[in-house]
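Human
Can I borrow your eye for a moment on a structure tokenisation matter? Give me a protein, with the fold worked out from its sequence. Write it directly below this note and I will take it from there.

Assistant
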Amino acid sequence: MKNTASFITLSIALLGVAGCLQNTDNQANASKQIWPKLPSVVPKDPAIEEKVAALVGSMTLEQKVAQMIQPEIRDVSVEDMRRYGFGSYLNGGGAFPNNDKHATPADWITLAEQMYQASMDDSLDGISIPTMWGTDAVHGHNNVIGATLFPHNIGLGAANNPKLIEQIAAITAREVMVTGIDWVFAPTVAVVRDDRWGRSYEGYSEDPEIVGKYAAAIVSGLQGRPGDEFLADNRVISTVKHFVGDGGTVGGDDQGNNIDSEQDLFKIHAQGYVQGLGAGAQSVMASFNSWHGEKIHGNKYLLTDVLKQQMGFDGFVVGDWNGHGQVAGCSNESCSQSINAGLDIFMVPTKAWKPLLENTIAQVKSGEISEARINDAVSRILRVKFRAGLFNKPSPANRALSGKTELIGHPEHRAVARQAVRESLVLLKNNRQLLPLSPNLNVLVAGDGADNIGKQSGGWTITWQGTGNQNEDFPGGSSIYDGIKQVVSQNGGNVQLSADGSYQAKPDVAIVVFGEDPYAEGNGDLDNLDYQRGDAKDLALLQKLRAQGIPVVSVFITGRPLWVNPELNASDAFVVAWLLGSEGNGVADVLFRKANGDINHDFKGKLSFSWPASPDDTQLNVNDSDYAPLFAYGYGLTYQDDVQLDKLSENASLQSTKQQSLAVMHGSVKSPWSLSLYADGKTLAMDSNTASLNSLNVRTTDRYIQEDSREITFKNRNVAKVQIGHAFPNDMRQYSELGSTLTFDIKLNSKLQASTKVGVNCDASCSQGIALTNLLSEEDLGVWKTVSIATNCFTQDTDNMAKVYSPFAIASRGPLSITLSNILFNNNSDETEPYTCDK
């Protein structure tokens, strides 16, 4: 029997191995059938390959791994660079030399020079390999005060002018090179399929064809064309990102899950890589998103089998901001899985770079990572450095363009950006051909976006989210109002600027500039496309002016198509300006005639994203079988079109996106949230079944099934809080409507405390929360009770439910023990009488 059992066991094992081999063969066959073998536009240079091999052969393991570590300037010093010799470093959004937002180009050059010299100093690490500085120059050199800022990608997609795009990229490269930086994390080639995604404006189009054309143009402009100024003194290394599928996540969730078939992954989401790599891109950034539940940073099939082997990419793959830490079984400080999958460079901001370096070295020594994989990664990094001439170029402070600060925001560069603004504007409505306007009118310029360069530029503008900027932060730039004032004043007209629409003399026309406030990844995600839902203050301004008999021209600043039917109805003309950058004067070039009455510049922009007919048209893409947009892909009026737009429906039905309930904690805390403890000025994330922080303790406990509840114990009279939250906000306005509730099950394990409060988005003491004594009594001691609170109790601030960082928190200033389970938001719940704040 033992022999028989052994035979059966061996047979099963062999079948399992055969199945794995067959699965591997099937994947290999699939990659060959779906993914192309790209022509080598930058063929391997035998001389470079010989240098790479010799250098790798002379390096220690520690030196090799250091080439694969990319720290961030806020968390790495020049001495760290001298000691370890990192292969690269970066400045993230909102990071500046000396931590100074107003750092001058000279400050950037100084840091670049110091880091370079430290990397070349072999006194501590024993080797001289030039480091690289990478930066997110995604619409111009957008981290540097005074740089030329171009329209974000969504606007450039509407312009649909690849030659202009290549010119923009070349200008960006020049301004970047002035500051001594070698490498740009652009272009983003996401094909956006759900406009709720907060990075929609980083995509050129919902159409893979435009994205592919633009990828090739941007790469060519940044790097130069192979054989023609390729990686010359006025060019930078480019990065096509984020590989792959980031624009197709379920629900448009940033860093979410793409569940497209492999064929669609290629056909829709990979076209930017086909053409970007075909133009010679030397780096690819791995994406935060998952594909069918597996994080791309740990997906060997996509990073190695597809990208490197089948498509033939011989540059390097860099991670995104601690993206390796999201791979199953990994942390920011340790992730052999990513290296084994094909990641060549860890992007590791914060001080996690040091344990990550040490752990990776240990994993190679233990055999968890093969030295052959390390050698491959380092060879790829060095190959690009040799191709870019970094071993031969002077140091950053002595390069051809370094220090030529007159190129930062040069008038010729701004002229190209102004042209891009003109060509990206899309005219959706022009009833009775109100536009173009005569330049000698009495013009009222209204709206909070009229004289606001920061708002018109959007996210990734000086700061990461694009917030906290003033017009003074854009020397040489112009607001939309600046351009209007110049044109009208020069032609005998009169301009009044009033954000709220008030005026002294009744105007002949009102130009109202309004739209989305700046945001970047994470913070920009929405749950539907209704503009200013619940707080339509811009609509009120339009309606006020129309009611006074004033013709209204709306200029809409936005990073995506939004449902604005009421705003369209309240406008005589409606222009989509997207996020146009620093040259707002380009808008007036198109809105106004010349002094002799001729058209100055006509509208050229056409929608590269379909425009929604309802707020829940969130996945609306050309060629869909049920395609029914308000304005179709490619729509855009010109001054030759006499089209009257009839009144549109203002019924904001949200049936398809309105969830009846949203679980915050059901058994486990639900993604994207996590549970944290706050006590005595410290914070602790709960990452196991118990967590203690001074006067506060949380542990999992059983109610119906194993560990489906959380027992919370506040031990003394110091204020403490348990919060379920996330670094990025969720748009939860659908749960702020009448009848919506926050509902949870709670059991009192000790006497009630008057100081205990429950809240949403609440501070350390939940001072604006609901007292637990309003929800429970001493009679509830020891028994489970379901509590419902009307969510309008938490919406005193109109933006509260639009940006929910923490959907549930409980704080106490006295000893208390409770157990919680089943925390959720309900729409129109009638099971439990809710607490309504007026009791």
Observations:
- The chain is about 30% helix and 15% strand.
- The first helix runs from residue 2 to 34.
